[in-house]
Write a structure and sequence with these properties.
HD-GYP domain-containing protein, 344 residues, HD_GYP_dom, HD/PDEase_dom, two-stranded antiparallel sheet, 5-stranded antiparallel beta sheet, Hypothetical protein af1432, Molybdopterin biosynthesis moea protein, domain 2, globular, HDIG_dom, 3 domains, 11% strand
């Protein structure tokens, strides 16, 4: 059953007033110091609103991304349904779906914070579809891609990487536990199925189609569906593969909870023979830069801030406990783990 927007969780982000743009929606009522409300929650901000906020010397406000994100999720479902029914999915449709989220990507440079802000309780398959496009585009920029057309292709390919799953039985996709060998062989068909879907539509460039077909290929030849190695794998597919593994492991699934980003980055760093080494190194470095200073919840219920991550022990950051000056090195206290990253 589709829930109304009113029933959805509120997705908000704090933003500096000087980064507001007309059309942003205010998340919470805004009051003057003496208690009078000046702008109610839900207001679509105009140029005049933004000027007023600047004149009031407001520094930061919260905007509501609920409609933006939920619409993207719903649009993703529509695209998957069209693919399942054999109907064409135009490149123009995908670009239109992504535009509001790309706007937030340009404003929010910290990809960890952005993904947390866009963390949905909705169906994992559709959340994953939307977010991989965003993450793949960010990684491409970190890798030095600057051409907007090329960045657009990578983002579109990331968004469509699992479109072939529209042809996979739902009972396999949503199975609350490990797949049998037979079921896994069915799942392994989705990259080629996705390629076949896009190959029927002339608007998609070969690079996009190849990235969709090859996003599960691995450097050591142990990937699928073709068992390609090294330079035989398209660069876009290599970027999407890293984004795919990171987001899948850090997301809540029907058969397990989220895995700490630190442990996932450690896993990626320790398995560089499977994915592209250069992409992994760039990705881990930039993600750790985003995570330093972040607020975290520990497995014993305490909270703190990340102060340091040893490159040789990525999974075990150093934490300064909230409300005190006590420092905990998780490498020395391996009974403790980072359970979640918290938005401040």
């Amino acid at each position: 059953m589709v829930r109304s927007l009113e029933e959805m969780e509120l997705y908000t982000k704090k933003i500096e007033v000087n980064k507001l743009t007309p059309g942003d929606i205010l998340a919470y009522d805004l009051y003057l110091d003496h208690g009078a409300m000046i702008i109610p929650a839900g207001t679509k901000l105009t140029v005049n609103h933004i000027v007023r906020l600047k004149n009031m010397e407001e520094k930061i406000v919260s905007i509501d991304l609920t409609k933006v994100y939920i619409k993207s999720i719903q649009d993703s479902k529509v695209l998957m349904k069209k693919a399942m029914d054999g109907k064409p999915i135009t490149k123009k449709e995908v670009v239109k779906m992504l535009q509001p989220l790309l706007k937030e990507t340009r404003r929010e440079k910290n990809i960890v914070r952005l993904l947390l802000q866009l963390q949905s309780q909705d169906d994992y398959t559709f959340q994953h579809t939307v977010n991989i496009g965003i993450v793949a585009g960010v990684i491409a920029k970190w890798m030095g891609y600057t051409d907007e057309e090329e960045l657009s292709k990578i983002t579109i390919a990331g968004t469509l990487h699992d479109i072939g799953k529209s042809k996979i039985p739902m009972q396999i996709l949503k199975k609350p536990g490990p797949l049998t060998p037979v079921e896994f062989e069915v799942i392994k068909k989705h990259p080629r199925l996705g390629y076949d879907i896009l190959n029927k539509m002339p608007s998609y460039e070969d690079e996009i189609k190849l990235a969709v077909r090859q996003h599960h290929e691995r450097e050591d030849g142990r990937g699928y569906p073709q068992g390609l190695v090294g330079d035989d794998i398209h660069p876009y597919a290599k970027i999407i593969a890293v984004a795919d593994v990171y987001h899948a492991m850090t997301s809540k699934r029907v058969y397990r909870g989220r895995i700490s980003p630190f442990l996932v980055l450690d896993h990626l760093h320790s398995n560089m023979d499977r994915l592209d080494t250069e992409i992994i190194l760039v990705f881990v470095k930039n993600m750790l830069n985003c995570l330093i200073g972040s607020k975290v919840g520990l497995s014993d219920g305490r909270k703190g801030h990340v102060t340091f991550v040893d490159p040789k022990a990525i999974g075990y950051p150093v934490i300064r406990l909230e409300g005190s000056h006590k420092i905990i090195d998780l490498y020395e206290q391996k009974d403790l783990t980072v359970e979640e990253i918290l938005i401040e």
